[in-house]
Amino acid sequence: MLARFFQKSENEGKQPEKNKQEKTTKKIWAVAGGKGGTGKSIIASSIAVQLARRDKRVVIIDADLGSGNLHSYLGVTPAPITLADFLRNRTARLSDALVVTQYKNLYLISDANEVLGLANISNQLKENLIQQIKELDFEYIILDVGAGTGYNNIDFFLISDNGLLVAVPEPTSIENMYRFVRSCLNRKLMRRFQNTPYQPLIEKAAYPREAGGFRTIYELVEKIYQLDPPAAEIMVDEILSFRPRLIMNQVRSQADIQAGDSIRDVTRKYLGVNLNYIGYVTYDDRVKLSARKRVPLFQEYPNSGAAVCIRNIVDSFLG
Amino acid sequence: MKRVEEMNYYELLNVEVTASKDEIQKAYNLACQTYQEDSLATYSVVSETERMQILQRIEKAYRILMDDRERAKYDYRIGLADQRRIQEKQPAMMVAQSEEMKGRYSTSSRSLNLSANNDKAEEAKSSEPPPDISDPHYLKKLRERKGVSLQEISEATMISVHALTDLENGEYSKFPGRVYIVGFLRAYAEYLGIDFQQAKAHFEILYGASNKQKK
């Protein structure tokens, strides 16, 4: 029936997140968080450091195009070649921008914010960047993704094997996180159903308040099911394969910690997304102190509460 | 994938159908936290109306699941005792059933694994003669001969372990009525691979005896 539309979209350039062959040897982790002070970059850099300390070959990339800070958190002087050079075609290979850090196994690709407007790159350039990211020769590739729900952030998040969302126990942070999750899901579905008759319906689902919109994802799926059950099945598969993970940062109480479980429940029930709550990081003054000194947290305060929490999170992945 | 309104009480509280009262209590406590007024987790996603609605359902779920009899009645009502009934009732959303989805989203859609016990039936052949249907521990003895645990039956039939225990112990007064006992018995017998008519005959004997005692 209409299944031929799906044949077409599957062959037309594989969706980035579906490259399962690459998952076995190398892992891409993306770290995203709402704007303003969730601590996403510190957590991303600390995760990278901890992986390196566990003898993994790691590269961390500042994918916060136009506003990256990773070099500061890692205490690396601004690199001679950065992501900006690659994007401006001053260097053809992304790997030219690799920079060593004080940790033997850890490399950085930074985005020293030298050029305005870098946040708005063309689709072609972005696809090229994504491809080269995947080709980097490392066991772990950590992407520090920008805040907000711009397509770049979402696309970087969607190419990861492990998408980590950092939130703090504050209403605005939680609201941003839900927005991000919704946008990611919508984008994922849009890409899967590109060039099919259902594309307009999915577009509509991005605007629940508009007339004729879908209040929830379930309504969208039900609508598609009425038109084409196999298509609905594909859609449900896509939804279920979206499994972001939540880290609650700057927690100060049991209630803050438990908020993560609550968020997981709400996300499942009301957004239809299977969010995993993988851990929390306690509020710790020493995080700010180390950042101010421009020294990695693990180096300056390796036994601080925050460092211990992050170690636990990383170790739980390494098994 | 299920709408909140379509979730059964177990799914609503995120507990297994075999959950203990302790687990249900914990789940209820968390759910109350999650959906309380001014909750962080519901901000911007759950409307006030939705919040009140889910709280009402959570209260009801708690009340029902913490009461043995009510829970047994409910389990039967939602078809946990009879797998065929579950498959007939499937709403449109359950069409796309991947294995992951079964495990993660819906406790009521696991398929009956009838093949599990066949191997065990061969392994556990004991030299003792099979129990007589008048034996009060008829069911339990048969089950043990096959080397099957109550947990296993519970997971396959989605009848709670305590209900199965009561069934095996002939604690029929704990059930809301004959029809429930027979329903559970059928599922039990089917899974275990024993003759349902025999099992029913055994029940009739014990049920009759216990009724005589009451008179």
Give a short synopsis of this structure:
Chain A has helices at residues 3-11, 40-53, 70-73, 83-87, 123-135, 151-158, 171-192, 199-205, 217-227, 229-240, 254-271, 285-293, 297-300, 305-318, and strands spanning 27-33, 58-63, 99-100, 106-109, 140-145, 162-167, 245-251, 276-282.
Give structural notes:
- The complex is a heterodimer of chains A (319) and B (215).
- Chain A has a domain at 29-161 and 284-319: P-loop containing nucleotide triphosphate hydrolases (Rossmann fold, 3-Layer(aba) Sandwich), CATH 3.40.50.300.
- Helices cover 47% and strands 14% of the residues of chain A.
- Chain A has 14 helices and eight strands.
- Chain A has helices spanning 3-11, 40-53, 70-73, 83-87, 123-135, 151-158, 171-192, 199-205, 217-227, 229-240, 254-271, 285-293, 297-300, 305-318, and strands at 27-33, 58-63, 99-100, 106-109, 140-145, 162-167, 245-251, 276-282.
- In chain A, helix 11 links the parallel strand 7 and strand 8.
- In chain A, helix 2 (40-53) crosses helix 14 (305-318).
- Chain B has helices at 9-13, 21-34, 48-65, 68-77, 83-89, 99-105, 116-123, 138-145, 150-157, 161-168, 178-192, 196-214.
- In chain B, helix 2 (21-34) runs antiparallel to helix 3.
- Chain B starts with 8 loop residues before the first helix and ends with a helix.
- The interface between A and B is medium-sized, with 34 and 28 residues.
